[in-house]
Amino acid sequence: MDKDNIYQEYGEFIFKYLLTLTNNLDLAEELTQETFYQAIKSINNFHNNGKAKFSTWLCSIAKNVWLQELNQKSKKQQLKDSLKNEYPTSYDLEDDYIKNEDKVMFFKKAHQLSGNKREILYLRLLGDLSFKEIGSIFGRSENWARVTFYRAKLELGKGE
Known about the structure:
The chain is mainly α. The chain contains eight helices and no strands. InterPro entries: RNA_pol_sigma-70-like, RNA_pol_sigma-70_dom, RNA_pol_sigma70_r2, RNA_pol_sigma70_r4_t2, RNA_pol_sigma_r2, RNA_pol_sigma_r3/r4-like, WH-like_DNA-bd_sf.
């Protein structure tokens, strides 16, 4: 694998993946850089024995980088910061609740899905990734990603 062209070839793909995980442009950019830094450091550990694609290997590094980021910050501090940055000092709580009620219900239902279904749903809807790209991330087929997404949608509809 040519170290000089890795970012050009996979940078946008990894950024989209991290954006779906973080839902934060700045953090996704930062984690993308860290992902490629880690990948270059450990590129000799990538063994293409016909089973793993390079993009899948990069996605696993990206996911680990994201999980490390989550572990470094306490959830309480993240919530405090996001509330401070997202909301003005005064707002109508009732209006805010009504506007976000549908979004909150969707995420409550999505949170109850199994890990793969939930992640595929987020990658497809929030990350705007194709089923082929999603299948690649999981090391599975495009059809597997499509069927799993469909099943996740059916599961979400049962709660209605």
